[in-house]
UniProtKB/TrEMBL annotation:
Residues 1-26 form the signal peptide. This is DUF1995 domain-containing protein. The lineage of its organism: Eukaryota, Sar, Stramenopiles, Ochrophyta, Raphidophyceae. Coiled coil: none annotated. Residues 73-282 form the DUF1995 domain. InterPro entries: Chloroplast_ADK (IPR053021), DUF1995 (IPR018962). It comes from Heterosigma akashiwo. The keyword Signal applies.
Length: 321
């Protein structure tokens, strides 16, 4: 019997090393894949996710990194495109560590609860979006190559591992034909996973690293003794893309940040999906505080009475059911 194809031999070898690496992370040290040893990439993966088909990535055309006028994306695919452009722009500016917040499509929602399955159900909605995002970023990598560099039509292999089943913390790695262009994304990182985040961040080196929808709200969430350590770790992580739905005094608004643009606030019509830019914040990395947004809306629309707030909130609930 002849030798197995090289790609099959590589996959078999890689899966064995990945299985060993799960133990290594738990033990405080990491093994390396032979194919990426010289690039310092530590293995952390066990399960390969299908990546042969992706409706968001095509072999024709070139994604344009020139942004359209400020707007809220319409639908999941539009959001992935908008996020990928922001992330790629930041990466091109040398920002390899980034925080990303995306809006998730509702799956399995009931009249009483949008997410009856909690964080695990949210993970099922988030993972496909992150896979699509990583593939879109790989496509943008190819588009950025000059005419003298070799391009490949091979889509990246997406490797996925849930590292905390209870809190649905997952790690995705996009493996490129060039190991130096591999990408790493951690879904729903929380305060308990900071040790693993440090290990992954160090092993990834200068490759792109994304923290997607972090579960902490502020550095204080890491506790009194963990705040300084967490602040030091998170300092390099730029918020390259952030979209957030807010209900302020019954008004539906969206907060958006697309690198390198400043934070922007939009009014949002839940019935039509139309959005209107109402405020551009001054430069700043931090998410604008809720009280600041309240004051902006008060100045623009006037302060609502208690009765008006109740009516507005009731109308919002009716529109979103």
């Amino acid at each position: 019997m002849g030798s197995p194809p090289m790609h099959l031999k590589h996959a078999t070898q890689f899966l064995w090393v990945l299985a060993m690496s799960v133990f290594s992370l738990a033990s405080g040290f990491a093994l390396t894949s032979s194919s990426r040893l010289e690039h310092g990439w530590h293995c952390f993966e066990l399960r390969m996710t299908e990546s042969n088909a992706d409706p968001d990535v095509t072999s024709e055309g070139r994604d344009n990194l020139v942004f359209s006028p400020p707007r809220i994306p319409r639908g999941t695919e539009d959001q992935v495109l908008q996020a990928s452009q922001s992330i790629q722009r930041a990466f091109n500016d040398g920002i390899t560590r980034q925080q990303v917040k995306i809006e998730l499509p509702l799956i399995g929602a009931t009249e009483l609860d949008d997410w009856p399955g909690g964080i695990k159900q949210q993970y099922q909605a988030c993972e496909p979006m992150v896979i699509s995002l990583l593939k879109k970023l790989a496509k943008l990598d190819e588009d950025d190559l000059n005419e003298n560099e070799q391009k490949t039509t091979t889509q990246p292999q997406i490797l996925s591992q849930v590292i905390d089943a209870d809190d649905a913390v997952g790690v995705l790695q996009a493996q490129s034909s060039d190991p130096k262009k591999d990408k790493l994304a951690v879904i729903f990182p929380n305060t308990e996973s900071i040790k693993v985040l440090k290990q992954l961040s160090e092993s990834a080196g200068n490759r792109l690293k994304l923290l997607v929808n972090p579960q902490w709200k502020r550095v204080a969430d890491f506790g009194f003794f963990g705040q300084q350590d967490a602040k030091k770790f998170l300092e390099p992580y730029e918020r390259s893309y952030h979209i957030q739905s807010l209900l302020v005094y019954g008004r539906s608004v969206r907060l958006l940040r697309r690198y390198p643009d400043p934070w922007q606030l939009f009014s949002f019509d839940e019935k039509t999906g139309d959005s209107t830019l109402i405020h551009v914040f001054q430069e700043g990395k931090d998410v604008p505080e809720y009280k600041v947004i309240e004051d902006i809306l008060d100045r623009k629309y006037g302060r609502m009475s208690v009765a008006e707030r109740i009516q507005q909130s009731t109308d919002f609930i009716k529109d979103t059911l």
